[in-house]
Structures are given as C-alpha cells and as structure tokens.
Amino acid sequence: MTDTEKRIAQQIELRADDTGAKTLAGYAAKFNTPTGIADYFIEQIAPGAFSETIKGDVRCLFNHQSDNVLGRTTSGTLRLWEDDVGLRFEVDLPDTTLGKDVGTLVERRDVNGMSFGFRAVKQSWDDTTEPPSRTLEKVEISEISIVTFPAYPDTSVGLRSLEAARAEGAAQNAAAARRRVAEKRAAMEQRIRGIRQDAS
C-alpha cells in the first residue's frame, strides 16, 4: 500500500481457554471519535468505513512488522467486523515464540496498544474549522498491529494528506470557476444568437 497512514487505537484484552490457547480482542478503531492529528487537523472515522476492506486479506502483526504475523483473516485466525462502536477484532495467538511472547507481554500489561495502517479511499474535509476536520468515509487496510509504542501519529504523512486535500480542493474550486465562466459565455452566446435570429 502506498501513502499508508497509521493511527493508534484502543487497548486490548487477553482471553485464555482451558487448553491454554490465547486470544486477543478489542477495537482496532472507533467511529465518530474526533481525534487531533498533531496540530494539522481533526480526524474521525465514519461508520461503515471498513465494511469492504475487511472482506479481503488482512493480517494482524506485531509492531507493523510483516515478518511478525499473529493472524490472518483468510486463515480464520483473525476476525474483523464492524459494530456500532467501531472495528472490532479477535486474533488467536499462534503457538510460536512470537505468539507466546506477545500473549505474555499483554497479560503483564507491558504491551497494551493497538494500531492500524490504512489508505484513505474516500474522505471529506471541512476547511472552515480550525484546525480543519477530516472524515474518513472509506478506507483500505492490509494490517492491524499490536504495538509496543503506539506513537501518535505519523505527522509527516498527516501533513501530506492535509496539503494534498487542500490542493485538491483548490483544483476543484478552479475547475468550478472555469465551468461557471464557460456557462456564462454559453448563455450569452445563446442570447446573442437568439437576438440575431429574431432580427433576421
């Protein structure tokens, strides 16, 4: 995924069954929760933003590292769904050194952060507020992560997103202005032609 942004999410909980198998659960993201992205903009996620992407192949990683795989939707070891609160997840920790280590770290509360990487597919901006407001209406994710340091957030990516959105907005405004000028010219030409036709 190009231009991937990362956001922290909520705390996670650990469950264990009688066999000792461990499952992590929680929310990878919450809806309608305005969050400040440094000093650049306020962001929130709209309900339904993940509805399409969670049908695909999503992995659960440790610290966003692709070689630290803890679960995967296509194998059934990671389960993702939306509810009224946000993007819910459950991941069955593997019987590996990494899985055992992560389970122990979460159980001890040494690690309790979640994060997810995403690419905005559809978004809206309100540039009348200070700072501007961004609503993520549709996103693509390829991974969620249990993280040691849920550092918040990648401000350089956030700044690029804001600049890109403003540039896009300026381009749309310019295009709209050009359309209005063209429409006025067309209307004037029609009036002139009508007058000429009447005169003839």
UniProtKB/TrEMBL annotation:
Protein name per the record: HK97 family phage prohead protease
The protein's UniProt keywords, in alphabetical order, are: Hydrolase, Protease, Viral release from host cell
- GO biological process per UniProt: proteolysis
Note the InterPro entries from the entry.
Peptidase_S78_dom (IPR054613), Prohead_protease (IPR006433)
The answer, when asked if Nucleus is one of the entry's keywords, is: no
**Ranges for domain Prohead serine protease:** 11-163
Recall the GO molecular function terms of this protein's record. Answer: peptidase activity
Q: Which domain of life is it from?
A: Bacteria
Q: Does the keyword Protease apply?
A: yes
